Every structure is written in C-alpha cells, then in structure tokens.
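During the reporting period, we have paired protein sequences with backbone structure tokens. One record among many follows, to show the layout:
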Amino acid sequence: MEPRRPPEYILEVLSDPFSLKDTVKALLHTIFFHRYFPPIRPLTRDFLDVTLPAIDDVDLETLIDQRATALMRQMDNAGGSYGGRGEGGEGGSRGQLAVRFFEKKRRKTYFSFGKADDDICWEQWILNVSLTRAKDEMAAAKVRKAMEMSLEKNAQKIVNIVNRDKDHIPPITTTESNPFPYDILVNPKSDGWGQRIGIF
C-alpha cells in the first residue's frame, strides 16, 4: 500500500532583487509560527508595511536565513542579471522553496536490532518565487505595490490554511522539544521516480 500524499500548499511570491531575502524570510517565519510546536516567544516584524509573526529561535532563524540566501544566489546565477521579463519592468527569474514537516514513525523490524524511525512527511509548503526588476521610478512604485499585495495575500492564505486544515496534523507522541522535524529545500527536484527511490 502506497503512503498517503501529504497536503501541499502553494504560495506564489513576487519580489524584486533587493527585497527577495526579506520577503522569503517573512513568509517562512509566518509558516513556522503556525506549524512549529516547541514553546516559542512570539515576535512580530514589519516588512513592506505588513506586520507578520516571527519566531525567536536561533537555530530556525539560521536555517531560514541560509535557505533564503541560497535561493537568492541560485536565482541570481540562473538569471544572470535577473534576465528574462518580469512584471513591471525588465528582468525576472523564478525559484522555488519547499518547507516540509515530518513525523517520526517507528519502523517495524523482525529482530531486536536495527530499530529505526522513518520520517513521514505530513505537510508541505511550496513557495514559487518570481523575481522582477523595475526599469524606472514609476515602475518601481508599481512593483512595490504588487510586492505588498503578494505578501499580504500569501500571509492571509497561510492563516486561512492553518485555521482550516488541522485534521492531518499527527498526534504528538514524543517528549522531544520539537516533535515534528522539518526541512527547507531550495529548488527541490520534481517528484519523479528518481526521488522516490532516493537517488536524487
């Protein structure tokens, strides 16, 4: 029997090169604020005239910062000087981030040795990031407004999803500080046969 596919939530994100890292970090913090189960001290951060939640956790902040930086570099390398066409002006490239949350399930073995846990994904968030660059001041104002609207729309979408979709969250069965491991992938490979057998 093939395992059930976890719910996948897709966010379409628009940013200019100068705000890319902060935009991605803001959305990742919003996701983790609602799906990170250890005790946290909540914070808020203002970005693009939008107030968003954040988490005061050094390890998580470091991971988010590393992945946002990696995405920024990869998009810069893939698009040259942000080549292509984007909304509101010249230059555009695309990138993707995936946030996955897991539960640990005890693997059944026939002998007493070799007990191990499997990480089973129970939720995945995909951030499809489109990069744009304005060619003049008038276009820059339009791009900024579009970025604000995109950020606000995505933050509201996250809140709506986490308030609506709760039944798939597994029960907490461990006393570990973080019951659900997670990862953040930059430009993940598609879900093809190679990924399923673990060679990609």
Summary: DSSP finds four helices and eight strands in the chain. Residues 80-90, 192-200 have pLDDT under 50 and may be disordered. The beta strands are 8-15, 42-47, 50-55, 85-86, 89-90, 92-106, 117-132, 182-186.
